[in-house]
Design goal:
By secondary structure, the protein is of the alpha/beta class. Helix content is 42%, strand content 15%. It folds into two domains: 24-122, Rossmann fold (3-Layer(aba) Sandwich); 138-261, NAD(P)-binding Rossmann-like Domain (Rossmann fold), CATH 3.40.50. The longest helix has 22 residues, at 261-282. The structure holds guanine (GUN).
Length: 283
């Protein structure tokens, strides 16, 4: 079974659009998401366009602010301070990665935690690890939604995560743990990685290397979630971290690239923007 993130996200976005339609009457306006893009990285440009398109579909106001990669850290921090103070802004997203001369941690920490739609602010991260209410990071949230929509039982399962990034590997591990999976986090320096991944009933791959996971690394019947977005060095086409053609026949459930986790990430960003908007109104 192939889980279509594209279809699931279309359905969820339609439901959100229905809800947002009622917001002007209830609250006087719709949620407003501001996306900051620094530089011209083609991947980032494309992601930011996807976020603007999804916002339009859901009825969320989107402002994309583009800055040259020569912007200083101070200028970026000042822009964030201005958006934090703006009552008409509900969500602030700084597209990562940032140029090397800018301290990403400092920038993320500068965003008002109530407007942190990525769930990357240190206080949101702390709340996640303490099981307190918080904004959940979009990709991990989307992965759990996909597993549930596909009818996968998470409780009691052996889950293996490849990758330990702040954006995906660590938070998805915590969410799987909260769903009562037994979680193993692996990474580039894990010894005998294939031996570990073959134990996985649920395998989440976020390592950022094209077709890194080969058929011999996956057990028959495993659920395989591919977070990778890479260019296939041979064909130049978009591909995941998983050798899809070789693993699809073995897996019970698998996500494609493109059309899998990616659309769910954007869908969860829309959901987080609505949540931040509503939480700010409730105060
Ligand atoms: N770069 C890659 N993934 C993400 C994400 O989820 N949020 C932001 N802000 N930047 C990213």
């Amino acid at each position: 079974m192939i889980i279509s993130g594209k279809e699931l996200s279309a359905q969820l976005k339609a439901e959100m659009a229905e809800k947002v339609k009622g917001f002007p009457a209830l609250y006087g306006r719709v949620p407003h998401l501001v996306v900051i893009l620094v530089g011209e990285d083609p991947g980032s440009v494309s992601y930011v366009k996807g976020k603007a398109k999804a916002s339009a579909e859901v009825g969320i106001r989107n402002t994309t602010i583009r800055k040259p990669d020569t912007i200083s850290e101070q200028e970026l921090l000042e822009l964030i301070a201005q958006l934090n103070a703006d009552d008409e802004v509900d969500g602030i997203l700084v597209q990562l990665p940032l140029p090397k001369h800018i301290d990403e941690d400092k920038v993320i920490a500068a965003i008002d935690k109530a407007k942190d739609v990525d769930g990357f602010h240190p206080l949101n991260v702390a709340a996640l690890w303490q099981k307190q209410p918080c904004t959940l990071p979009c990709t991990p949230k989307g992965i759990i939604k996909m597993l549930k929509a596909a009818g996968v039982t998470i409780e009691g399962k052996r889950a293996v995560v490849i990758g330990r990034s702040n954006i995906v590997g660590l938070p998805v591990s915590k969410l799987l743990l909260d769903e009562n999976a037994t979680v193993t986090i692996t990474h580039s320096r894990t010894r005998n990685l294939a031996e570990v991944t073959r134990q996985a009933e649920i395998l989440v791959v976020a390592i950022g290397r094209p077709k890194f996971v080969t058929a011999d690394m996956v057990a028959d019947g495993a659920v395989v979630i591919d977070v990778g977005v890479n260019r296939d060095p041979e064909t130049g086409k978009l591909c995941g971290d998983v050798d899809f053609a070789a693993i699809e026949p073995k897996a019970s459930v698998i996500t494609p690239v493109p059309g899998g986790v990616g659309p769910m990430t954007i869908c969860c960003l829309m959901e987080n923007t609505i949540e931040c908007f509503l939480r700010r109104r409730a105060k």
